[in-house]
Amino acid sequence: MPPPTLAKRLVRLEEVSSTMDVAKQLAEVGWPEGTLVVARTQTAGRGRFGRYWASPEGGLWFSLILRPKLEPEDFSKLPIVIALAIARALEKHLGLEVGLKWPNDVLVRGKKVCGILIESASYGREIAYAIVGVGLNANFSLEALPEELRGIATTLREELGRDVDLEELLMAIVREIQDAYLALQEGRGEELLKEAEQLTGFPRGLRLLVGDEVLSGVAIGLASDGSLLLKLPDGQVRQLHWALATVLGAQA
Hints:
CATH topology of the largest domain: BirA Bifunctional Protein, domain 2
Largest sheet: 7 strands, mixed
CATH architecture of the largest domain: 2-Layer Sandwich
CATH superfamily of the largest domain: Bira Bifunctional Protein, Domain 2
Helix content: 25-40%
Radius of gyration: 17 Å
């Protein structure tokens, strides 16, 4: 099977600080949509809000350059749409039962197996580029992760009892990203959000950090732009954008 068109230029590296940094440098000098940067290890992988992301050998660490022609509301759907695409790939390619945690985590048996980071640059209302960073815990044991993560994370080796072909899995994931990205560009974002919502387990009570404010309430679904709808104790419904909110956990 030929590689997906979103992997038209493949940059393979042994060790980097972060594939996001490399992809951003390439995007800034005009490398095209579909440039895929893959590293064996990262020394300074990061997640949302600059949090450290452990990236030992055996994982799938990559960043993809997109140059989306999307309206702001559709662009806001991108994190959950990318998460959905990866969930589809893990289910179809590996037979795993997966879930999503809003806005950008993929879970297996309630534990995080994959995280997604999106960074972009704009000129006015036009998006110059978006970098989609993916960190997937694959062919290593939990002992390779920091101790504080071992109770909340998992790896494909832990779940399957075996290692996977990282090259095959990478191409399977990029194909699913390509299909979902095309659907988003074709105006089918609403159906993608509905599918993602079905995979997202919203706890009865939820605590979130929004700026310096901690909010508690009940998640009642996703808005049309992928934002979380949170019903507060006073009955008010707040719409929380993924770029500004962090899920702290279930409400005690």
